[in-house]
Amino acid sequence: MLQHLDEGITIKEVENHFHYSEFYFSRIFKTLTGESVYAFIKHLKMDQSAIDIKLKKHKAITDIGLDYGYSASNYSSAFRQHHRLSPTEFRKSIEATSIANPFHPGIVDYFETFDDYDARMKIVLLQDVQVIYERVFGNYDDPTISSMNRCICDLCITTDNTCKLDNITMIKGGKFATCRFEGEIKDIFL
Predict the structure, then answer these.
(1) With bands split at pLDDT 50, 70 and 90, how would you rate the model's confidence at 140?
(2) Largest Cα–Cα separation, the chain
(3) What is the domain-level CATH number for residue 6?
């Protein structure tokens, strides 16, 4: 779904992709995520549009809304309903150089510059890797926009084939964007 958001993806196309009946797919999807497929796609579009507002400051907000299937008249109200800010207020608020750490109340973390983050980013070819995998479903917002109780959180820890837990999966190898982090787990937020 993430790979096809800008193509006007439909629920029927998602169901057909997985070769399930509409009723079965919708029921299983809602059981796993707590939301309908339609609501999930709507959240993803709102979150991605917020990222575009952050990154594409030269682009008109109405054009960003149009990119995600919203008319000029309903994008602002849909955005406000989802993010509790208008798109214009959101764009003005993102010049922040710091953010309250959601894991440690009272602690403010400061962002590095883009160049600092970019210097640590590398595209690498990785082999298949077996991981212990856990996903916590909530709502789907960017933690720099919304509180942590509105995010999808994924956690993967590498393991070998002797691990007998139920939540084991294989991540297929290929090219991945990586960012090296050194420090304590409590500091990984930024």
Answers:
(1) very low
(2) 56
(3) 1.10.10.60
Instruction: Give the residue numbers spanning the domain of 14.
Output: 2-93
Over range 66-91, report the average pLDDT: 88
Using alpha carbons only, give the angle 94, 99, 103 rounded to the nearest 5 degrees.
140
Q: How many domains does the chain have?
A: 2
Give dist(CA 96, CA 102) in Å, integer: 16
Together in a domain, 89 and 141: no
Q: What is the pTM of this model?
A: 0.55
Round to whole Å and give the CA distance between 33 and 87: 27
Q: Give the closest residue to 120 by CA, choosing from 179, 177, 175, 176.
A: 179
Query: Which DSSP helix (H) or strand (E) runs through 136?
Result: strand 129-136
For residue 2, give the H/E element and its range: none
The residues, ordered by sequence, that sit 6+ positions from 129 with a Cβ below 8 Å of its Cβ are: 158, 170, 171, 173
Determine which helix (DSSP H) or strand (DSSP E) holds 25, and give its type and residue range: helix 22-33
The pLDDT of residue 96: 62
Out of 69, 93, 117, a domain closes at 93
**What's the full length of the chain, in residues?**
190
At 164, the amino acid letter reads: K
Highest mean pLDDT among 21-35, 140-154, 163-177: 163-177
Task: Give the tens place of pLDDT for each residue, 22-67.
Answer: 788 888 888 877 788 888 888 888 888 888 888 788 899 999 999 8
